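quick one before i forget lol
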Amino acid sequence: MNETTAQTVSVVMATYNGEKFIRQQIDSILGQTYPIHELIIQDDGSTDQTVAIARKYAEKHSQVKVFVNERNIGLNLNFQTAAMRATGDFVAISDQDDVWYPEKIERQVAAIGNYDMCCSATMFGKSPETAELSNRPCNIERLLFFSYVGGHSMLCRRDFIKNPDNWQSYMWYDWSLSLHAALAGGIVKIDEPLLWHRYHAGEVSSLLGEKLKSIGEHSKFYPYLFGLKAYRRWLSDDNRRRIYTHLAELTADGRHPLVHRICQLMLRDDLPSILRLCCLCQKHRKRLYFGDKSVCGIKGWLRGFFFPMIYSCTLSPNMFYKKM
């Protein structure tokens, strides 16, 4: 091992009934240009041939380690407990059905520096030929509201990912990890795609996408007419209060004043506080929306001011983890 590969990388893959695509993903991991210290595959009670396939790879490749949970524990806990087994200097998270480009780990190890996390753009779609680029910014203001960093693109420092405080069980694991990384050691982003994230029936992103289709049943004026009611209903969610109380405490040291102020206002349900939050979102709308077109002119001003209502009518119903 030379100086450029002196830092070891563990890859953690959580599996469940993934026999259809798992071979292609394992091959792409083992074929990385950067040596893989270990590939930890932890299965959550598959009823197909997933475990048998993984064990065949383990017989041929010493770095492949296979574990099977005694009971089904769900996606979040499966990833967390698998990550706790990692021994490498860095830990990369892998879905069972993606395909990594050969230089993914090499590029990320070179880029991570002293940051807690390195992520990348991805190609997202049903096939490599029809996949589209997904490259959303991952600043902390956006991460306050939903996960814009897919776990499949993450490379993390071992001490960060093995800190249980960074795994909030009621949040999707990748949202929790990216939020805590952004608030602590930071996130560095590679704007080029380093993997193909496969979209298919039964995949978590597609299941969430189906739930979000109901948004289209409302007119574009719905958040402006009924958003306050939806937002106040959302304010009563216990998990929402847990996460924003937690974030308000984490940011009380003054390092993230805007984040702290937003979290404080999102814990209050009186009309003056809601209006102050709307004004704050309007003022910083460029930090909340993707692209300048969303924030220009009177339409952009209105979108910024009504952001809490728009958000509560769209993404917020699916922001917290549910075992699937």
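fyi DSSP finds 15 helices and nine strands in the chain.
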